[in-house]
Amino acid sequence: MSINGSRWRNVSFHDAANPEEALGGFVQNGSITEANFLDILGIMLVVGESPLRVQERISSCVVSRTDVPLTTGVYDIYCEVHDELWMRRAISHNITGRDRAFRHRISNRDRKCLISGLVNPESNIQSLDWSGYEAAHIFPLEHESHWVQFNYSRWMTDMHDAAGSSKINSSQNGLLLQSDLHNVFDLYLLSVNPDDGYKVVVFTTDRLGLDGRILDPVCRSPTNPH
Question: With 70 as the cut, is the pLDDT of residue 99 above it?
Answer without folding.
Answer: yes
